[in-house]
Amino acid sequence: MMLSFFDQFMSPTYMGVPLIALAITLPWILYPAPTSRWVNNRLLTLQGWFINRLNQQIFLPINQGGHKWAILLTSLKIFLITLNILGLLPYTFTPTTQLSLNMAFAVPLWLATVIIGMRNQPTAALGHLLPEGTPTPLIPVLIIIETISLFIRPLALGVRLTANLTAGHLLIQLIATAAFVLLPMMPTVAILTATVLFLLTLLEVAVAMIQAYVFVLLLSLYLQENV
Question: Membrane-spanning regions, if any (predicted)?
Answer without folding.
Answer: 12-31, 69-89, 101-118, 138-159, 171-199, 205-223
